[in-house]
Amino acid sequence: MKILVTGSTGFIGSHLLDLLLAQGHDVRVLLRAQSSAGSLGDRVVERITGSFDVVDSLREAVSGVDAVYHVAGLTAARDRAGYFSGNVTATRNLLDAVERFNPNVGRVVHVSSQAAAGPSPDGEHPLDETAPRRPITTYGESKAAAEEVVEQRMERLPLTIVRPPAVYGQRDPEILRFFAMVARGFAPLIGFDQKKVSLVHVQDLVRGFVLAGENPAAVGRTYFISSEEFYTWPQVGEVTAAVLGRKRVRSLRVPHAVVFVAGALSGMLGRFQAKPPVFNYEKARDITRRYWTCSVDRAVHELGYRQEISLEEGVRRTIDWYREVGWMK
Question: Where would you tag: which of 73, 169, 223, 261 has the fewest CB atoms within 10 A of its CB?
Answer without folding.
Answer: 261
